[in-house]
Amino acid sequence: MLNVVRDNETLKQLAPYDVVVTCQATSEKYEDYDFVSRYFWPANGGDEDPVTGSIHTGLAPLWAKRLAKNELVAYQASSRGGVLDCTVAGDRVLISGNAVSYLTGFITVKE
Which are the contacts of 59, defined by CB distance < 8 A and separation ≥ 6? Predict the structure, then answer.
């Protein structure tokens, strides 16, 4: 999965869409995981996201169905990489794991 080569100029042409690459974790390198992914978003101002919980809310149901299991362990194989524990519970997907805080702030919503 780390061998996937990102071509930002080509990916930018897909605007407004981003690209997710995913596969079942079958190699020895990823034996502790059910599936592996990478998420590219040059069309929307970035390159590759290190670990993306929101993308896994869509990937987890796909892999739950294919693997016939509702509790999955995913690995996002970016340069930093990260592990996500995913549980598909009916129409909900629960994502957990370790996080890296990158922003602290307040949001004010006016009525």
Answer: 20, 22, 35, 37, 74, 86
Banded model confidence at residue 99, pLDDT cuts 50, 70, 90 = confident
Residue 102: how many CA atoms within 13 Å on its side-chain side?
6
The predicted model gives 12-30 an average pLDDT of 92
pLDDT recorded at residue 101: 81
Q: In three state form, how does the secondary structure of the chain look?
A: CCCCCCCHHHHHCCCCCCEEEEEECCCHHHCCCCEEEEEECHHHCCCEECCCHHHHHHHHHHHHHHHCCCEEEEEECCCCCEEEEEEEECCEEEEECCCCCCCCCCCCCCC
Residue (of 55, 21, 54) closest to 37 by Cα position: 21
